[in-house]
Amino acid sequence: MVTITDKAKERILQVIKDEQYDESYFVRVAVTSGGCSGLSYHLNFDNEEKKGDQFFEDKGIKICLDIKSYLYLAGTELDYSDGLTGKGFEFHNPNASRTCACGESFSV
């Protein structure tokens, strides 16, 4: 399961409002090959379910992972930072053995 912080929830709800997404949209989180550590996080909004999707809900936000990504992201917390040193979604992944300096890629 992927959980979200209150700050991430606020930002997700703001994006949904700004983009005028209806209630059929959910947050899709995935892991793809790439980045300086080998695997990269990918986050977007989607309203189409694909075969093998795993759905979770935390704090009223529907989150979707494909089965491959689920194996890498089980137990991960999605956060949002709007500080001076960086702005955007952050992943706190207990499965990552190494992350790059920017935090956008990892390895297990």
Automatic annotation (TrEMBL):
<dbReference type="InterPro" id="IPR000361">
    <property type="entry name" value="ATAP_core_dom"/>
</dbReference>
<feature type="domain" description="Core">
    <location>
        <begin position="2"/>
        <end position="104"/>
    </location>
</feature>
<protein>
    <submittedName>
        <fullName>HesB/IscA family protein</fullName>
    </submittedName>
</protein>
<comment type="similarity">
    <text>Belongs to the HesB/IscA family.</text>
</comment>
<dbReference type="InterPro" id="IPR050322">
    <property type="entry name" value="Fe-S_cluster_asmbl/transfer"/>
</dbReference>
<dbReference type="InterPro" id="IPR016092">
    <property type="entry name" value="ATAP"/>
</dbReference>
<dbReference type="InterPro" id="IPR035903">
    <property type="entry name" value="HesB-like_dom_sf"/>
</dbReference>
<dbReference type="InterPro" id="IPR017870">
    <property type="entry name" value="FeS_cluster_insertion_CS"/>
</dbReference>
<dbReference type="Pfam" id="PF01521">
    <property type="entry name" value="Fe-S_biosyn"/>
</dbReference>
